[in-house]
Amino acid sequence: MTHQDGSHRMRGRGRRKKVCEFSRLGILPDYKDPERLKRFLGPTGKILPRRRTGLSAKMQRKLTIAIKRARHMALLPFVERSITDRRR
Q1: Ordered per-residue pLDDT tens for the chain, 88 residues
Q2: pTM, whole model, 2 decimals?
Q3: Which domains are assigned to the chain?
Q4: Dihedral pair phi/psi, residue 82, rounded to 5°
Q5: Quick one: which of 66, 67, 16 has its CA closest to 42?
C-alpha cells in the first residue's frame, strides 16, 4: 500500500532475521554432538536448507559435512520413519 508521502508500510510484524547459531555461540558444527545436529534435520531426516536454519553459507557447508560424518558413525539416522509408517 502506498501512502500520500510515497512510503510503503509493512502490515503486521516483519520476520526477524535468523542469526547463525554457530557463529553466535562461537563454535563449529561437530559430528560428535548429535543432539545439536538433530535440530537441523527435518522430520524425515533430511538436512534443512539455509532459509530454514538461518545459517551462513560457510556454516551450512560445515554442518552438512558434520551431519554426514555423524550418519556414517551411526550417531544419526540416515532416514526417519515416514509419516505413513508411524500410523501403523
Answers
A1: 566 666 666 566 767 778 888 999 999 999 999 999 999 999 999 999 999 999 999 999 999 999 999 999 999 999 987 666 656 5
A2: 0.74
A3: 21-77 (4.10.640.10)
A4: -75, 165
A5: 67
